[in-house]
Amino acid sequence: MTSSPALDHGMGDDTTIAASERILRVAGAQLGPIARDEPRATVVERLIGLLEAAHSQGAELVVFPELALTTFFPRWYFDSWDDIDPFFETEMPSPITAPLFERARALGVGFSLGYAELTADGHHFNTTILVERDGSVVGRYRKVHVPGHEAHEPWRPFQHLERRYFEPGDRFDAWQAFGGVVGVATCNDRRWPETYRVFGLQGCELLLIGYNTPIHYAPDPGQNRLAGFHNALVMQSGAYQNGMWVVGVAKGGVEEGVDSLAESCIIGPSGEVVARTDTTGDEVIVADCDLARCANYKTTLFDFDRYRRPEVYTRITAQRGVIAPEGS
Ligand code: CDT
Hints:
The protein has 9 helices and 14 strands.
């Protein structure tokens, strides 16, 4: 299901609450596989091609996936940082990524881009940068929920060593940008309701989420057949329960022998999917996101100030794991 901007996005006739339209045409720029030996410069050319395709369809904001400049390297165990650090960026933009920033500014298109960030003082993060249409940097987001494992686990057909290679970020900040309130989250963050709610509590109207999701889940392969269902389930519920647009964008397809979920999609504040990719390769989807429509949900069923009961939710921040009631 690839949408055209002209489509009715399934919002029905619920036009009474949103005062006036605030339409932002958003593109999801899905990537197919990136080989381990594919040069960064070639990847940047692919990104520019997707950006130009999105612009030709009128998009003002292009959402790229998580870790969009390299292959998904946490699938391999490396003992030495000398082998890991080459997957990281020490500056953004850099001489290699600058052409993407320059082309976007020339076209007046903003974008979000996921990459591995190595800071000057030696910290490693799974980061996404958000850039406005004039080329200014809105902000940087560092992935909060870092999944997988820390140690080599040779029993797995491939590794998921994000917890070895990345430190967790510690902030969910929304920003005023693109004529609304915009947030960024990354991949595994989308499975956690806290992510959406913390953004929802900042009035977030548009949440951008890049992902790399291997379809095989080694700890419980029974979940493999549900990968697409769970992807849609969490993003659609997060969108609806917080009255926000959610744009989920994959790096999908078979990359270095590992099959990853595609199914990038754009979801309205009703929870309905309004655009979804058809392929597992490089592909652009576009939708007109009326940010004013968020008010239909934020001021009715999900009027937080009127209906939430934070005094009853204290466990959410007071404890991390499960504490079962006493008794048998
Ligand atoms: N990149 C990323 O966060 N992927 C995870 C895989 C979970 S299994 C370790 C995801 O939630 O899709």
